[in-house]
Each structure stands twice: as C-alpha cells, then as structure tokens.
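Model: Ready when you are.
Researcher: Fold this.
Model:
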Amino acid sequence: MNINTMRLRGLIRKESLQIIRDPSSIGIAFVLPVFLLLIFGYGVSLDARNVGIALVVEQPGPEASSLISGFRQSDYFAPRVMLSIQQAEQAMMERKVDGIVWLRADFARQLRSGRSAPVAIIVNGVDANKARLIEGYVGGVWMQWLSRTATAIGQPLHVPVKVEQRIWYNPAVRSRNYLVPGLIAVIMTLIGAMLTSMVVAREWERGTMEALLVTPVLVKEILLGKIIPYFILGMGGMLLSVAMAFFLFHVPLHGSMLALAASSALFMLTAIAMGLLISTAAGTQFVAGQIAIVVTFLPAFILSGFVFDINSMPVAIQWLTHLVPARYFVAILQTIFLAGDVWPIFIVNSAWLACMAIVFFLIIRKKSNKRLR
C-alpha cells in the first residue's frame, strides 16, 4: 500500500507538537549539547600544562641557572626549586610535583671539562600518558638549553641525527581540536538514540498507540511520522554543535559543509534507527532509556576512538568497535575538521553507516506490525 501524504503530514504535526510540549526533548537536543561541549571543551584536555616539577640543584652556578631558566620560560612547567633530593621525593610522594630534575654537585665541573654531565630525571609514572609527555617536554627544554649553550661559546651543537618535525593537520597540537569533533558524534548518538528510544515506549505507556492501531494509518506512516521530526531536531542539535566548535572553541573546519551535512544526516538516520529499534523492543520509557545508554551512548563514548585509541585496544575489542556506528562518524568528523575532504575515508565510513542504517530499518520494519502486544 502507498503512503498517504495527508495522514503522514498529520502524524508529523502530531509528533512535532509533542516535541514542542515536552521540555525534555528540547533540552536533550539543544541544552545537553551545549552543556557537554562546554565541559569537554574547557574542562577536559589531553595536554599537560603547568606541570609541577622539582628542580634540585646541589651546586648553584651559571650553567645550572641557565638550565633552570629554560624550565621557567616553558609554558608546560611550573618549576619549584628545592634544596635536596629528599625534599623533592617527598613532594612527589605528596603529589605536589610530577617530576624531578636533579643536577648533582659535579654537574658544572664535568660540563666544563668536556665530559658528559648527566642530569637525573625522575617522573611520576602513575599516569603513564602524562609521564611520557613530561619526558618529552623535559627533553625539549634540555635540547634548547644545549643549543643556547653551544651558541654562547661559538661552537655548533654536534647532534648525530637532526630531527626536523612537521606536525600535519593539528600544528598547534591542541587536544581540543581532536576532542570536540569526536564529542559531536557522541552528542548526536545521544540525541538520536535517546530521544527516539522512548518514543514508541511512551506511546504504549500513554495508550495512544492503541488508538493509532485501530486507524487506517500504515505502520510505515507511523514510523516516518516519528523519524522525520526527530531527524530535523537532531540536525538542529548538530548545527548548534558545529557552530560552537567553530566559533567558540576555534576548531578549524578544513572540509566542505556539504560533506559534513551529508555524513551527519546519514549518521543521524543510523542513530534514530537504533533508538527506534530499542523503543520497539522495550516496554517502558525507563527501560528504553537505560538500554539506550548502555547500547549506544557508552559504546560511542568508549569504543569509537573519541578518547581512547582503537589501535591500542586488544584485538577482540578492536573487532567489537566495528559494530559501533559512532566509530565511523568520529573518523569522518575528525578528518573533515582537521584534514579536509579525504574522500577514501569519507566514502568507506559512510558506506558502513549506510549499511548499518539499512539493517536497522529492515529489522524495525519486520518487528513493527499493527497488533496489540
């Protein structure tokens, strides 16, 4: 049977009025994205800044003062000069500092004699990622100091291998540029799946579904009447998120708006399909909401590559991530924002999203029928 456009318009209007009258729907679509973006944009950072570091200088001198000044001028460190290694170790145990740079009493003498002048570096390894960052930052300060020292005495710095770094796609090395696009995928999962997961369950709870089943309305018309309003609502939340990312957090957008809009629409359909599938199977709004959080939101947050690198996960978990639609959308968003329209990545990930959306909608169509439970 063909879809009756008049009935479909009536269903869309009915669902739209329910959205307008339900503050929670507007809140999830527009208030929650703003809240999450503000928290993650300003409160979460993978960069190590103002790292507390203890500088232990057993024998002060011009060389040690020059090295210490390098740490003072660095944006990464908040140095604290201490008199003994025991004091520095106590400060690290109390979590007042995260690293120690120890210049022994013979540092200047060995340096003047032309022999190697070792510098001890002790790093708190509780947070392994931060420890590696601190090591890299200390190494950078050390190399800058060596270069300044060699220039001061008029001699070239002899380094066996000269490394010339080129950072592509995120030259400022801002973790915010990486996190915010991925967060948009999590937000859209939340909007699409959470809202629609409670739609059908709410109809059964309120008794309006029985009224719809005794009318000439087709099942496909009922589904379209719910998909279209929430799709528009979700794309509105997407537009708000992108605007905040670009204007508020200054995340560069190197790709085209057309590619961004197309991939967002495809992912929103996939998220809505997941939500409808959950709502069709769940009996109440509470159960549907809990299932949506466990099945859609948490995997999107943990297994999509938004925060945790997928290649660092065990092989079995890496295979499991292929079942998470947000994985593909995160890859598309990070590419469009930071690299541009890289079509192989866009096409492959979009194809996966399209396949998943089709499978979800086929399952929904098969499970949906005009009969009472």
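Researcher: Now this one.
Model:
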Amino acid sequence: MMGKKILFYDCFAGISGDMNLGALVDLGVDAGHLERELGKLNIEGFRLEVEPDMRKGISGTKVTVEVDHPENEKHRHLRHIEELINGSSLSDRIKEKSLAIFDLVAAAEAKVHNISKEKVHFHEVGALDSIADIVGAAICQEYLEVDEIQASPLQLGGGFAKCAHGMMPVPAPATAEIVAEIPVKTGLVEYEATTPTGAAILAATVDRFVSRMELVVLKTGYGIGQRDGDIPNVLRVYLAEDATRQADDVGVEEAVMLECNMDDMNPEWYSHVTDLLFESGAADVFMTPIVMKKSRPGHMLSVLCSQDAADEMKEILFRETSSIGLREYTVKKSMLRREMVRVQTKYGEIEVKRSFYSGRVVNEKPEFDQCRRLAGEHGVTLEEIRKEVYKKL
C-alpha cells in the first residue's frame, strides 16, 4: 500500500520566496509551467531567471525574478493584490492559496503599524518579485499534487536586517507576527534567514510542523539563496511518502500520551476520573500499579488522546486528581480497520465489532454491555450469550 504523498520543508537555514521557488523547481516543478502560470497574472515587466548554483558544495536551483522596468515596482494595497489575482485565469485553488499568503502578511504589517489591513502599503511584498514569489509558491505546490505539507521548526536567524522602514531586529516585527504558534529557532546566523514572505508561505500552507521527520524520501530538492556564508544558504525540500507503509486495513496516526503518578488519592475516585476522561474524548485510559519514592504503593494513570483533546485532558487530570505534575509525549497509533455488524440471537440483537487485516477478519468481539444486559434480562450466563453470538457469525 502506497503512503501519503508529502512535501516536507527542511528549514534548517530559513526560507525566502526565491529560495522556495528554487527548491520546488529543483524538486521537479517544470520551470516552463511556472512561467506560463505566472503569465496568467497579466503583468508585464518581469521574467524568471532559473539557473543551477551551489552553496558550500551543495548544488541546487536558483530562481531570481528579474524586473525589466523599475517603475513597475510600485506600492500596492491589499485590494490591488486581490483584484490582480482574482482577475487572472489561474485556478481557484491557486488563487485561494495566494490570497491566504498575502492576507497573512497584510495582517502582520497592520498589527505592527497599528493600522487596518486595507491601509497597508505592500512595500517589498507588493513589488513584482514578491508577487511572483507568493503566487509562484501556490503554483508550484499545486503542481506537485501532494496530500500533505509538513515542515521542520523554522530558523529565523539573528542580528538586524534593513527594510523599507530602516534597520529592524531579526526576526522583523512582521515575521514575528506571522510565525506566532509556529515552532522556530534563532541565532544560527547573524542575518535574516527567514523573510516575511517565506514565513507567510509556510504559515498559510503547511499542515503540520514536526520536530522529527519520519518519512520515506523519494526525491530531494535545494533552493539556493542569495547569501554565501559559513552556513549553506539553501532551502531543502523533500518529496516523500508516509514512513508507515503498513498492510492494507492498518491506519496510522499520531496521538498524545499523558501520564501522572499518584499515591495519595482515594481509589474510589479513579472510576469517576476515568469516566470524565472518556466522556471528553480520550481514546484510552488505564491504571498501572507502581512503587513510588519511600516505597509507597501508587498508581500511574495513563491517558491516550488526540493532539486536539490534550489540553482538556490535562485540565481534568489537574482538577480531578491529586497529581501536581504530568508527563506528555507523542506516540504513533496503528489501528486495524473495523466495522460493526448486528447479530440476531434468540436472546435479542447484539452488535459485534469486526477487525480486518489485509482484507481478512482477524477478530470479532460482541459488545460487552449489550451481552451483560441480555444475560440479566433472560437469566442466563454471559458465556451462554457469547456462544449464541458466535453461532450466528
């Protein structure tokens, strides 16, 4: 079974708009296709220069937007950008992605300068080269037809950078706004490693930021930046597949495991806490007997849940248990495909959960609560109910 097709951004040296275009072309996007699609914007006065280049022994592709007429590099407002993109013959998906990137930059600039998005002058971003970088990013990503986009933590750089407003600390204020809630690193180099355009491309299009890549790499591309220092000024991208090439009927997903140790809680409360956790969406809750410090007997309460549910699970643990600390880590769940079937027995109808592996049924389990209810209603044992169910399977 083939895994999901994934585009992975390895941003160890940051990202800019031109580095992104170079990396994606190096990965396999047809440069001619990119130029033809950009032509649908109906803007004259710029062209793409695509050439091989190298940084610190790493070869890749360098893409530069050459502007023929400097007067075309005028300032624009957000509505001008929206009119330009919406008025083009680009696909709806490319339009949507391009506008999302521009909107992020506009919102960040507006917050930094305490004005509305509509009043933001798109200085560098409104120039032809940045329009090409942003719309080109959407074109290239759509060309690759990936199922998911992932990225590493983003290197921002350090020191100071010169922009239209003068010298700014790195990250520039707009970049700092754009990367809110994105994992970042700083200080690798003393310059602006990630530009607002590069940050916005990732913030608007990446599905997941991960600290560790666990993929099957199919192809690697390098986008060459404008600098040449001690650190290779390149953006590395991978075309990859999900590393979990499982047999048919096996689904894989990431989950969160929360754990806390308790030796001073009334055991009668355990079932209450367990019920609350399950009702709030926990996938599994279980207790493990342990021996704690000073040889005190205790229990470890473990909660398996989705990333989205983790905060609510923590709140329950802190509010409803005696624990004052917990552990949290990411795990990978492998789950068999399952389906529910209804079985009619002489005692009544019972649901049976079937699990599949490689197209075959490998497990069948009657729902326990239904079996217990029917056993009580008919005055028979659970074993009798179980036998009746399996007669019908």
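Researcher: Key takeaway?
Model: The chain has twelve helices and 17 strands.
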